[in-house]
Specification:
- By secondary structure, the chain is mostly helical.
- It has two domains: about 1-120; about 120-230, no CATH class.
- The protein is about 80% helix and about 0% strand.
- The chain contains twelve helices and no strands.
- Pfam families: DUF3307 (PF11750).
- Keywords: Membrane, Transmembrane, Transmembrane helix.
- This is DUF3307 domain-containing protein.
Length: about 230
């Protein structure tokens, strides 16, 4: 586990902290012909060596660096095919971490993977999944009749309300699990402050009531999920 953590740390430093925007732009424009692509891989090789701190393990650093080069090069050519550029970005990071994982646990990959899955807290996984998209859809169904009566003449980011709801429910679930109920009150207060100007400018009682009901339902679902989880423990 320690080797895996060290190599992932080296990867994160190399990919996010030691890769200037200038390099990224140059790589996207020139792809395999970009000198910064190979300089980026060299940085990873050096970082892997530093974190391994054993010259005799140079082959580990070389193998992972070559794997990094192949994945990055594939990403440069595949990215233009995606309308949503975040998809190849996350796929790229998943492949990098997966490569490190497979390499570190190659001799007992199946046993390690099975142990990892068997060690998961599945009720917690269920709780986390439920308070995300499933809860958002349930809320949409519950408030469907009310939402049809609200005039949405204000500009808003696409699906911003859904994402805000998911994040706030994850926070509430976390606070309940760690026993910090007072933090939920702070979260409600913070949301009320941010929403105050919108409600004041709209001067709509229906919108105010709709947001209040939506907030209470959202927090209620998260609290109920949290209580069910901790009662299971």
């Amino acid at each position: 586990m320690q080797l895996f953590v060290k190599l992932v740390l080296a990867h994160l430093i190399g990919d996010f902290m030691l890769q200037p925007t200038k390099w990224v732009i140059h790589k996207e424009a020139n792809k395999a012909a970009s000198k910064f692509l190979y300089l980026h891989v060299l940085v990873h090789f050096i970082l892997y060596m530093l974190f391994l701190w054993d010259f005799q393990k140079w082959w580990i650093a070389l193998f992972l660096s070559m794997g990094h080069l192949i994945i990055d090069m594939a990403k440069l050519y595949v990215t233009p095919l995606f309308k949503n550029k975040s998809i190849p970005f996350f796929l790229d990071q998943i492949l990098h971490i997966l490569t490190i994982y497979v390499f570190v646990y190659f001799t007992n990959l199946h046993e390690q993977t099975m142990a990892l899955f068997q060690g998961l807290d599945w009720p917690l996984v269920l709780a986390i999944v439920f308070v995300t998209t499933p809860s958002a859809i349930i809320m949409g169904k519950l408030l469907e009749g009310m939402s049809n009566q609200i005039n949405t003449d204000h500009k808003s980011l696409p699906n911003a309300g859904t994402y805000i709801g998911i994040i706030e429910r994850l926070f509430v679930l976390t606070f309940i699990i760690i026993g910090r109920w007072e933090a939920i009150g702070l979260l409600i207060t913070a949301k009320s402050v941010f929403r105050f100007n919108d409600l004041k400018e709209s001067n709509s009682r229906k919108l105010t009531e709709y947001i209040l009901i939506g907030t209470l339902v959202s927090f209620g679902l998260a609290i109920l999920t949290g209580l069910l989880y901790i009662s299971h423990i």
